[in-house]
Amino acid sequence: MTYSASASPDFSSIAQDLTASWSPKPVSGGSALIPAEANSRMRREGDRFLASPTLKGATVDQEGLTNNYAVEPEMYYAAFPAPEQARRYALQGLGAFALVVTLVLTSAVI
Q1: For residue 55, what are the CA distances in angstroms to 44, 67, 100?
Q2: What is the pLDDT of residue 61?
Q3: Is 15 exposed, middle or buried (0-12, 13-18, 19+ CB in 10 A)?
Q4: What confidence score (pLDDT) does residue 43 get?
Q5: What is the phi/psi pair of residue 3, to 5°?
Q6: Are 44 and 33 in contact (CB under 8 A)?
Q7: Low-confidence spans in the chain with pLDDT less than 50
Q8: What is the DSSP string of 37-93?
Q9: pLDDT for the residue numbered 4
Q10: Long-range pairs for 44-51 at CB < 8 Å and ≥24 separation?
């Protein structure tokens, strides 16, 4: 069972290779090192072991361990604000400007 690192893994062929030699008895007699997580997952999932993950950003390696990666959100353009929102933003800006001017004048007077 050799898999090239540069090619994308074919999960079904990896699962077939691993489950062909899999038995419900303890797999490792010391000659093959299988992580405890993979061994218990092989028992728990049976035929579904190493099936392609249903979540985006997750991969399963050759031993059945799951790797999770961050998924970038879909990009979208912002919508221009409605006229009522634009008026609200203008009033908020005017209030902020008045507050800053008041603070500057107060500090100048003191």
Answers
A1: 19, 11, 49
A2: 72
A3: buried
A4: 82
A5: -130, 135
A6: no
A7: none
A8: HHHHHHHHHGGGTTPPPSSTTEEE-TTS-EEE---PPPP-PPPPPPHHHHHHHHHHH
A9: 53
A10: 47/19, 49/15, 49/18, 49/19, 49/22, 50/11, 50/14, 50/15, 50/18, 50/19, 51/11, 51/12, 51/15
CA distances from 105 to 13, 93, 97, 98 (A): 75, 18, 12, 10
Per-residue pLDDT at 90: 96
Contact present, 66 and 31 (Cβ < 8 Å)? no
- Residues composing the chain: 110
Give me the amino acid identity at 102. Answer: T
- pLDDT at position 23, please? 60
What's the predicted TM-score (pTM) here? 0.32
Query: Cα dihedral sign for 100, 101, 104, 110?
Result: negative
Q: Which two structure tokens, joined as six digits, stand for 57?
A: 């950003």
